[in-house]
Design goal:
Length: 328
């Protein structure tokens, strides 16, 4: 009675035709296979974990990874306050904490919460969640920071800085705080900040402190749904400024209509301005979700991506995606 098991997974088929070879992408991939394990020691003390295999195969010269994305102890101090320690998901954005396939539209997750917010994003540390009056809540966590590279093809790329609590360099810790409002049925408004005084974990390399500001809105009323998010990184340091990567930002808006419990349609516009030239683009997506069961979804969408810089025109693409996902 005290142990629990759950999980989710998703199979993707991408058929994208590019302006050049770099934009072509035609493949089938079992993108994620995830298992949740939990255990309740008593009514107020629990263990939570998430174990994931990406891209079916992991190991030397294989495309996938085996990852421990969550493994923490949580204790309810009272009905309003809980504390946790271990490896947990960073409280930022819409998808980072809730990303099971039946819970969102589109075969692929949105690119803003990939390039700017490097979802799925987890870290080792400690934090608390506090329920406040009138539908407000507060989260605060202190955890390992990013270790963003300052040279090579991924220089100053936020996603490449995730340490994943694998012998993570803890010379400079990070702090994340979030205020969330859910006092109106169907509405969620969130505001998050993360600060770290050295985003590379190395002194005198031209990349110093970093500040992430993120705000989002989720609203569901009858058939109508809306998601919108804006995220902005501001970095300090001579090298990151000289590279033009000191400001990295992105936003998207996603209206949707769910006609009944089985069928829903959506469209999404995204604008991304990341560290690399290839991460500066606009993307439009439109598609449909079909839920034969509330925990199983079949998806189809059509995407068009256009890069901002002429040098990356061969990465522009258009095409369709198909997917099937589940959770339990």
């Amino acid at each position: 009675d005290k142990a629990s098991l759950g999980g989710y997974g998703e199979l993707h088929y991408n058929n994208l035709s590019g302006e050049g070879d770099a934009g072509d992408h035609k493949q089938i991939d079992f993108h994620r296979f995830v298992l949740f394990f939990g255990y309740e020691f008593n009514e107020g003390l629990r263990f939570v974990s998430e174990f994931e295999l990406e891209h079916s195969l992991a190991g030397d010269d294989k495309p996938g990874e085996v990852e421990l994305e969550q493994a923490y102890i949580e204790y309810d101090v009272n009905n309003q306050l809980s504390v946790r320690g271990g490896v947990f998901l960073i409280p930022v954005g819409i998808l980072n904490e809730t990303h099971e396939p039946p819970t969102f539209y589109g075969v692929e997750r949105n690119t803003v919460e990939n390039v700017i917010i490097p979802s799925t994003w987890w870290a080792g540390g400690a934090g608390f969640s506090l329920k406040l009056p009138a539908g407000f809540s507060l989260d605060l966590a202190v955890h390992e920071g990013l270790a963003i590279p300052v040279d090579g093809s991924n220089a100053f790329r936020v996603r490449s800085g995730r340490q994943k609590t694998a012998e993570a360099n803890a010379s400079n810790l990070a702090a994340t705080t979030r205020v969330k409002y859910t006092g109106v049925p169907g509405l969620e408004v969130g505001l998050s900040f993360q600060y770290q005084d050295d985003a590379s974990q190395e002194k005198n390399d031209g990349l110093d402190e970093g500040l992430l500001t993120e705000t989002h809105l989720v609203y569901n009323k009858g058939m109508f749904g809306l998601r919108a998010l804006y995220a902005h990184w501001k970095f300090e340091g001579d090298a990151v400024e000289d590279a033009g990567a000191d400001s990295q930002k992105g936003w998207y808006i996603e209206p949707s209509l769910k006609f009944n419990p089985q069928w829903g349609v959506f469209t999404r516009f995204e604008d991304v301005d990341g560290a690399r030239s290839r991460d500066e683009f606009e993307e439009v997506v439109a598609g449909v979700n079909y839920w034969p069961h509330e925990k199983v979804v079949i998806k189809a969408d059509y995407r068009v991506r256009d890069h901002d810089n002429d040098a990356d025109e061969d990465r522009d693409f258009r095409g369709f995606d198909l997917g099937i996902g589940y959770q339990f």
